[in-house]
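Homework help board

Subject: predicted structure for assignment chain

Our instructor gave us this sequence and asked us to write out the predicted structure in token form, then describe one feature. I got the tokens but I'm not sure how to describe them. Can anyone check?
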Amino acid sequence: MKLSGAHAVVTGGGSGIGAAIAGSLASEGARVTLVGRRRRALEDTAARIRSRAGEEGASEASVFVHPGDVTIWADVERAFGAARDANGPITILVNNAGSAASAPFQELLLEDWRSTIAVNLESVFACCRLALPDLLTAANGRIVTIASTAAVKGYAYTAPYCAAKHGALGLTRALAAELAKTKVTVNAVCPGFTDTAIASEAVARIRSRTGRSESEARAALAAFNPQGRLIEPEEVAFAVAWLCHPESQSINGQAISVAGGET
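My token output:
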């Protein structure tokens, strides 16, 4: 139980990669707080984590749920305050909340740009800023941002998303340099196309715009990965857990690709 005594806050923790990360951290002994906009999804994820702990014969996992919109500063303040009351000071922050829309650049409106930047970049700033006082006092403070391969390369029709994820990686590297002499590490994990609801939405868009079948649309996404498949959420969760281990203290300011060799 390498994370026994840690308290991990996972944003966007109700489904997909966030839910997998929360489960992985809890299985290694961390107390977990799930933050997201959909209370039902958060509660369902918390119930699954507790149930799995019971099936594995472990003591009941400590999972706290607090609905909130990470694009709203006051919501983040309330969520983090409630998380501290429930699980103690924050020692791990996982910035997972995000959204990925796509459209030709000439069709984008300013509000499209701003909403994408808000959820994928501004929320990372807000969460890091508000968690940092706790992290600086932790024996092993950790910030891990789920940044996507879109943080290190460009994809057509996703200009706001790529810009936001490049920004999130830049913030990661700058903060890692600034905090290098502390006990806090700051890293990013960059998954390729992952088998989550976001990928399903991308498949639906491909089908509507091209007339391809569902299997053809999924194959088009999988083709970005040299291994020819979609990444599993649990693979991303494994990388995040590794970065949170005490032994990973020297891993700092990195972009860890989980993409089968795409980047």
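Reply (TA_rk): Your tokens look well-formed. For the description, you could write something like this. The longest strand covers residues 184-191. That's the kind of observation they're looking for.
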